[in-house]
């Protein structure tokens, strides 16, 4: 709850609008309005997540997504919430959702100049036990002279104009960049607004925590095997790193943003391109991490320079504190 003695709250909408006016003199306010639709989606999903077990929405729906994974009812609902909020914002031309095989092209009469790529409810294996899950989104502007086509989203992440995620855990925090740093806003459920709580997030240049699915060790390449070994058995006087792995990218990345360290989902002999999707998982997180002073790589290339071949393409990813990510890059260079 917001402090009742504070009557001049900085809401997300107010903050973004001020920022747009300051930095982009020609700003039309359209991005602010689009972000209002995204906030509505996040609030609506947060409310559904909180009520999920009460109103029996957990459990399997009778459908699976294109990756062949079982889809939970909450995934379906979260997807519908975002598609509806974005379509009716009149600011979107193209949508790409993890839950939809094809991109969605908004009807001409509702079409705007932005493209939104999103994972409406990431970390779905954690839903039934109440562990943090989240929404991830990235925003492109349609290219000049385009009415909105697939080429508007099959672009490097460096061309995104905004990206963010929202956590659904003990509280809901929306972390956002519009290319001028990173800010976090926590949902005050009583007044229904995201309030600025984490201004100008900066990732520590080195951390003490690594996050990876250690159960995949058997399948790792030599660079990963040697890197993670170096974290656990460092040369004195260095101390071993702590391991933390929620298995929800939003929760693991949020901790990395605030405490530092490294989050990894490598490629391995079982998953040749890694697991995480470039457009709506890797790019938004890489954009946020770089804007917070950190670094994000595939191991061999800057994450944001990757050119996705398809809307659901995957990539290995390592992101977090600058020096920690530089270490894994050095291990990959040594194995080249
Ligand atoms: P999802 O989109 O099906 O929820 O999968 C993505 C999730 C990420 O949140 C998380 O980082 C990763 O999958 C965990 O995968 P694993 O269980 O293989 O460690
Ligand atoms: Mg996902």
UniProtKB/TrEMBL annotation:
Keyword hit for Cell inner membrane: no
UniProt entry tagged with the keyword Cytoplasm: yes
GO molecular function: fructose 1,6-bisphosphate 1-phosphatase activity; metal ion binding
Any single GO BP term: gluconeogenesis
EC number: 3.1.3.11
Pathway: Carbohydrate biosynthesis
Keywords recorded for this protein, A-Z: Carbohydrate metabolism, Cytoplasm, Hydrolase, Magnesium, Metal-binding
Protein localization: Cytoplasm
GO cellular component: cytosol
InterPro entries per record: FBPase_C_dom (IPR044015), FBPase_class-1 (IPR000146), FBPase_N (IPR033391), FBPtase (IPR028343), Fructose_bisphosphatase_AS (IPR020548)
PROSITE patterns, A to Z: FBPASE
Domain (Fructose-1-6-bisphosphatase class 1 C-terminal) ranges: 203-332
Primary subcellular site in the record, as a coarse category: cytoplasm
Coiled-coil ranges from the UniProt annotation: none
Pfam families cross-referenced by the UniProt entry: FBPase, FBPase_C
Broad enzyme group: hydrolase
Family per similarity comment: Belongs to the FBPase class 1 family.
PANTHER family with a match to the protein in the record: FRUCTOSE-1,6-BISPHOSPHATASE-RELATED, FRUCTOSE-BISPHOSPHATASE
Subunit structure: Homotetramer.
Protein name per its UniProtKB record: Fructose-1,6-bisphosphatase
């Amino acid at each position: 709850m917001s402090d009742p003695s504070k009557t001049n709250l900085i809401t997300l909408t107010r903050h973004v609008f001020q920022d747009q006016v300051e930095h982009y003199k020609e700003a039309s306010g359209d991005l602010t309005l689009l972000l209002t639709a995204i906030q509505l989606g996040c609030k609506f999903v947060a409310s559904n997540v909180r009520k999920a077990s009460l109103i029996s929405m957990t459990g399997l729906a009778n459908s699976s997504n294109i990756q062949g994974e079982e889809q939970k009812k909450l995934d379906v609902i979260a997807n519908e919430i975002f598609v509806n909020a974005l379509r009716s914002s009149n600011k979107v031309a193209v949508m790409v959702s993890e839950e939809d095989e094809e991109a969605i092209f908004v009807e001409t009469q509702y079409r705007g100049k932005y493209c939104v790529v999103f994972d409406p409810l990431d970390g779905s294996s954690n839903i039934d036990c109440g562990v943090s899950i989240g929404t991830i989104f990235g925003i492109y502007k349609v290219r000049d002279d385009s009415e909105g086509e697939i080429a508007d989203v099959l672009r490097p992440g460096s061309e995104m104009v905004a990206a963010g995620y929202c956590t659904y855990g003990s509280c809901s925090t929306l972390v956002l960049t519009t290319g001028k740093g990173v800010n976090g806003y926590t949902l005050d459920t009583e007044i229904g607004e995201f309030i600025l709580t984490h201004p100008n997030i900066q990732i520590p240049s080195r951390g003490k925590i690594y996050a990876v699915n250690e159960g995949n060790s058997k399948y790792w390449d030599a660079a990963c095997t040697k890197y993670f070994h170096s974290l656990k058995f460092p040369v004195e006087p260095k101390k071993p790193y702590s391991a933390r792995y929620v298995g929800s990218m939003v929760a693991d990345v949020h901790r990395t943003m605030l405490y530092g360290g490294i989050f990894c989902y490598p490629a391995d002999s079982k998953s040749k391109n890694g697991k995480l999707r470039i457009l709506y998982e890797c790019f938004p997180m890489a954009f946020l991490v770089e804007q917070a002073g950190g670094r994000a790589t595939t191991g061999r290339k800057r994450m944001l320079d990757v050119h996705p071949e398809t809307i659901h393409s995957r990539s290995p990813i390592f992101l977090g504190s600058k020096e920690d990510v530089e270490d894994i890059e050095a291990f990959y260079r040594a194995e080249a």
